[in-house]
Amino acid sequence: LSLNCGSSSVKYKLYNWENQEIIVKGIVERVTIGNSFCVQEINNKGKVTIEHDCPTHKEAIKLIKDCLVHSEYGAIKDLSDIAAIGHRVVHGGEKFSKSVVINREVLKTFKELASLAPLHNPPNIMGIEAAMELLPDIPHMAIMDTAWHQTMPDYVYNYAVPYQWYEKYGIRRYGFHGTSLLYVAKRAAVLLNKDPFECNLISCHIGNGVSVNAVKNGLSYDTSMGFTPLEGAIMGTRAGDHDAALGFYVMQKEGYSPQEMNTILNKKSGILGITGKYVDRRDVIEAASKGDERAKLAIEMEAYRLKKYIGAYTATLGKLDALVFTAGVG
């Protein structure tokens, strides 16, 4: 069973390893918001929607648990059929370069890293704790988005700031969306009919969050997101690359606290900041087609930033076998 706990949703899939097939997949939406519901799709049986209020992630995990074994629309007879549970964790820092079995020490480390991915790590942790409480007899694993990027060389992941910041606080480029980027790198090699370790790729994971990834000889070499998911391309609500002094300047002018500025740059910038009202690119495209000048500007700005990254990574790789697009917008 795989679980991906977001701030207001929990996505899940149950996979049969022996048959290499997805048995069931679903999503619990509007967790913590109200009017929660689960949409479950069972292999060869269609979709079913179950309305059930989920004020916390614990209720959402329990709803998933009940749906999986339901007599009418369930997929398995007993929860003991589940051999392991995999959890997506956005930020694993430098400590984790591969997937890990979750224990108290691992959870403690995730909590210490929560401030590095404020939109994702806290709900990831809430989901893990809820699942471990409700399903204590099944091993739980964490799959980190940062692990894929641990192959980046030091001259790529270090910042030109006082080096003791890296030594004391682990400040460096980590990169994100690793589970997606690992998969598309391997899949691209299959489609190219090449050894994955002989492939040079640029992968563009473009959703509400955006990562551009340079893959050199099958390994992550550079990526657009940095110490946190704020750096890089223009995103749905994140600013991406900008002059670091900009934040200090506006804090002085407007009297914002560091936490308020962090919220603005992560949750009120990007496409939303430019347009003033849109996050979903479909809404932006529709508004632009009707003459909305700021929607047009958002499209041009986002596309230009992506071109810059693709061009820069092409130069660093020397040769390029494929340009890969993935995620909802990609």
From TrEMBL:
Species in which this protein is naturally found: marine sediment metagenome
Keywords linked to the UniProt accession: ATP-binding, Kinase, Nucleotide-binding, Transferase
Protein name as catalogued: Butyrate kinase
CDD domains, per database record: ASKHA_NBD_AcK_PK
GO biological process: acetate metabolic process
GO molecular function: acetate kinase activity; ATP binding
